[in-house]
Amino acid sequence: MIPELLWIALLHDAVGDHRAVEIVTAFSRDVRVTSPEHGRTIWAAAGKFAHMRREVLGPILNKAERTYAAELRAALEPLAAWYPDHPLSIASGWPPGPTRPAALAQLKAIVAGMFDRSSRASIMVQATALWLAFDADRLKVAPDLSLAQFPRIEDYPATELSQRIGASIRASLNQMFGSQDLMASSGAWPIAFWNRGIALEPCETGDD
């Protein structure tokens, strides 16, 4: 899940939770409208974009009225710089930026934080991904379930309800990236991501 949702995590880190949701929602809706054959795709996993034609994603991000384009580009600059094979970088034709050490340090910090799926930062990213399933009309929940009060996740982890919603979000993503296969991509991007990481820096191991 980490490589797939890293682009969303970078947005949350760059522009805050509320604006990140606005940008991801607007972007995914534009993709669905522009490419009707993918109209019910949940555009959460980065690897999904590897299957999009360049001539589809490029115009979406280059149109002047796309008020989110500059923010999206800026947030994903570390990926464009250090991971030039990132699906969004390739599909939109962005040239790789300078490989700033600070950008790599930022990537490492965000990835490390995503390993704790119950932290607030990680939950907000997962909530955004699950929201895209709602927005694509691929997820519906019964009114008596915690997820029916999904917006209250913004209170996480301060309330018991938000903690229950957070647990439901994690469980739902496990299914959507697993047996239900609603979000997962082909798997090529996650493999490429970890291989690139090993090439950039050797793995760190702790003492026994």
What is the helix content?
Answer: 55-70%
What is the approximate shape? globular
Question: What is the CA-based Rg, rounded?
Answer: 17 Å
Number of domains: 1
Outline the low-pLDDT stretches: none
Element layout with pairings:
Layout lengths: L1 H14 L1 H18 L19 H9 L6 H7 L1 H6 L4 H6 L8 H14 L5 H16 L24 H17 L11 H13 L8
Helix pairs in contact: 1-2, 1-4, 1-7, 1-8, 2-8, 8-9
What does this protein look like?
It is a single chain. The chain is built from 10 helices and no strands. 33% of the residues are buried. The longest helix has 18 residues, at 17-34. Helix 1 packs across helix 7 and helix 2 packs parallel to helix 8 (120-135). The chain is mostly helical and 208 residues long.
Which terms summarize this structure?
208 residues, single chain, mainly alpha, globular, 58% helix
Summarize the structure.
The protein has 208 residues and is mainly alpha-helical.
